[in-house]
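Morning run. Coffee first, then this:
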Amino acid sequence: MTDLAARLSAIDERIADAARSAGRDPRDILRIVVTKFHPASLVRQLAALGVTDVGENRQQEISAKTAELDDLDVRWHFIGQAQTNKASAIRRSADAVHSVDRDRLADALHRAAESDRILDVLVQVNLTDDPGRGGIAPDAARALAEHVLTLPSLRLRGVMAVAPLDEEPAAAFARLHAISEDVRTVDPAASWISAGMTGDFVEAISAGATHLRIGSAITGPRPDRG
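And here it is:
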């Protein structure tokens, strides 16, 4: 617990320093702790340290952890690639889905609504030339955002992306910022920019990221999956 607190504090200090260097208020940036492959007990420890937002990549994990930790007051962010046949399970567990990259997935999440609870969603953009990577093509992001706006159980929050491995993160995140501005022409309230992980969150902050997805730098090494 002491090591976990130290890692969390160190990352938060780095986030605050990067924000101030970019002329931004650190309070405008939300740090999401990604707990992929870690046990639910770690999430409970994080919550005890004041963490309010947790991210998961896999439907099975977010479903299991939210069921075990339903007493915790944390927001759950689904940040992995989503299959349409998992939309109902994801919707039951997540407060926000960062990885909406096609109309069919948005439709499936909307159809899965079981109450009047609104689901926050982000349009995931593919910043690479590889169509196999998650995310919609940059020039199609606005159209997908417009489609999300037709689905009343979803609330468009903004855009998300992962920086390419073969490009400087600053350049990639600058493109994402421009895409965000385009999306905001159809919905000015869609101001979230989910970008930046352990290795590139400083560049993401400089490019206007509002939500950072940070895992092992806080949680420690992922457990061996055998």
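The chain has a mean pLDDT of 96. Good start to the day.
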